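Memo to structure team: turn this sequence into structure tokens by end of day. - J.P.
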Amino acid sequence: MVNVFIENTGDDTYALWGANANPQDILFKDCVAINPGIMRPKWYGNCVATYGLKSVVFENITCKASSPEDPIPQPGSGEIMIDTSMFVFYTSFGGSYPSDNAVCIRGASFMNLSGQKYTPLEGSLKVYEPHKMVWTPTEDGVLAPFYLPSKTQQVNVKACLSGSTDCC
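Reply from structure team:
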């Protein structure tokens, strides 16, 4: 998927639904996601979500999303599932990631709907907190705007958010 602009989705804006089919060599490049989940206010929707894969590259992705006030918890688990980070790697809906999976994030622009950038310093590490976006260290130590709802699944994320594009 290259050069795509999507705004005001009812759910996740860009989603890779691989389940256990292990899709590989998938590319999302120069894509813009604005205001995900607006059709399910305060409940569900992220700029980018995956549900199982073997390999994917996200290159020059722009995400504009608000951190909602009083989000609605997911029934059953109580997790907050809307706009908690730019990328979310789920295991729900049969999503699985083989041990040699690879997620590459090359260039990312993450901001609120007014265009103010989210930063790791203003965010939360690994755990959702109200009005803060989640940032997680990649396997090579880069703080990137993603989270893993399942603590039992290993997703191998590498990232270079600006400048160099040869990180993965």
